[in-house]
Design goal:
By secondary structure, the chain is α/β, with parallel strands linked by helices. The chain is built from 18 helices and 14 strands.
């Protein structure tokens, strides 16, 4: 059952009172500010008047209105837009830059993902902001970081996947490399950005001193190579494309059953013997070339040949049920629709609905995975339409007369 959150009683989140000015586009930084918003922060998303964040146009699909027509809100944008308020400011104009600086003075965190040096001409670079607001947490997300020969280049998720080695490992042996079908480096960078912001807030609360967080998509991609990267350091071997196989464990991959695919994992020697005993093939566990995990990894093609023959004798449902009984890792390979219909996913309330201003029907969204016992995440604001909260935020944070606001709108600043 989909969890409808519009009627929930909201508990103030752990970041209630934290104000975030979000001058970011695309995915990495917006995914970070959505997490901060879920945790209770007041996130003000600054967008260009008239066009807004590029991600709004990344479709189809687009949200449908009540007549079934496409709106301007892409599914891509909706995936990172909740718990934010959208305001329009053209900071390329001096009046707009000054408004942004005034807003910044009311905030704790500033998040941006412009090219290195791109904000200096507006007086919005870290060195300028540090002088004016020494307690500001200034988070910069770029493709390559603030230093190094590639720093001036624009960078995107797929470029980081390529340069960081990930794409070289994705795909089947003997086939061309393939990208991860989710912008995983953007998302992981957003998560690291959250960690950095929370650490910087802790430091600021103790010392009163802010700081810049310098995050690069490429750095993050390298950081989460983990065992594959360190394996290379140790043995000098370059990780290869292995399909669903695991580089350090065998058997642990996807096999074909009578009616579909299953993941089977025997991650230690005891589990492998247990699987062999269940299958009536104790002889496999006693083979000298299968006896330990080291042996099985070195002879994975032989192991997979034997395990594949066993798995092919029964259905997906059979293997999932029977392996669960003997506590071995085994899973059906769900497609995306099946994933959200899975009883475990439903029980965890990972699909939510929020009311959107462009339609009277609830919009389906993916929930936060964070489950906090005392300060649960809250879903207060559906992904906003472009500039939806400009007047509201200006009234809350800035002292401007209605006449001045009208002038700024006429000039295209707001």
């Amino acid at each position: 059952m989909t969890d409808t959150v519009s009627n929930r009683d909201h508990v103030p989140g752990p970041l209630a009172g934290v104000k975030v000015l979000d001058l970011s586009r695309i995915l990495a930084a917006p995914s970070c500010t959505q997490i901060l918003g879920d945790l209770g922060a007041d996130v003000i998303k600054v967008e260009r008047p008239g066009s807004g964040d590029d991600i709004r146009t990344w479709g189809p699909p687009f949200l449908k209105d009540d007549d079934g027509n496409d709106t301007t809100e892409s599914g891509y944008y909706l995936s990172t837009g909740r718990n934010k308020r959208s305001i329009c400011i053209d900071f390329s104009q001096p009046e707009g830059a000054e408004l942004l600086l005034q807003l910044m003075g009311e905030c704790d965190v500033f998040v941006e993902n412009y090219k290195v040096g791109g904000l200096a001409k507006y007086g919005l670079d870290y060195d300028s902001i540090k002088q004016r607001y020494p307690g500001m947490i200034y988070c910069s997300v770029t493709g390559y970081g603030q230093t190094g020969p590639y720093a001036p280049r624009p960078g995107y998720d797929m470029v980081a996947q390529c340069l960081g080695g990930l794409i070289s490992m994705v795909g089947e042996e003997g086939r061309p490399p393939s990208k991860v079908p989710i912008a995983i480096d953007d998302i992981m960078t957003g998560m690291y950005a959250c960690v950095g912001i929370l650490a910087a807030l802790r430091h600021r609360d103790q010392t009163g001193v802010g700081q810049q967080i310098d995050l690069a998509l490429l750095d993050v991609q390298l950081a989460w190579l983990y065992n594959q990267g360190v394996n290379h350091f140790i043995d000098g071997q370059i990780p290869k494309r292995m399909g669903s196989a695991h580089p350090n464990i065998a058997p642990y991959q996807i096999y074909e059953s009578q009616d579909g695919y299953v993941l089977l994992g025997a991650v230690n020697d005891t589990q492998f013997r247990k699987f062999c005993a269940f299958a009536g093939r104790e002889d496999l566990a006693e083979r000298s070339d299968f006896k330990t995990n080291r042996d099985r990894v070195n002879n994975r093609h032989l192991v997979n040949h034997e395990v594949s023959k066993i798995i092919a004798t029964q259905s997906v449902e059979y293997w999932v049920a029977e392996m669960s009984k003997i506590k071995l890792t085994c899973s059906k390979v769900n497609n995306v629709a099946e994933a959200f219909e899975d009883p475990q996913v439903i029980a965890r309330e990972m699909k939510i609905q929020m009311k959107h201003p462009m339609t009277e029907k609830p919009v389906d969204l993916i929930a936060s995975p964070l489950k906090l016992s005392e300060t649960p995440v809250s879903y207060r604001q559906a992904p906003p339409t472009l500039g939806e909260h400009t007047d509201q935020v200006i009234a809350e944070y800035l002292v401007l007369s209605q006449e001045r606001i009208k002038e700024l709108k006429t000039a295209g600043v707001l």
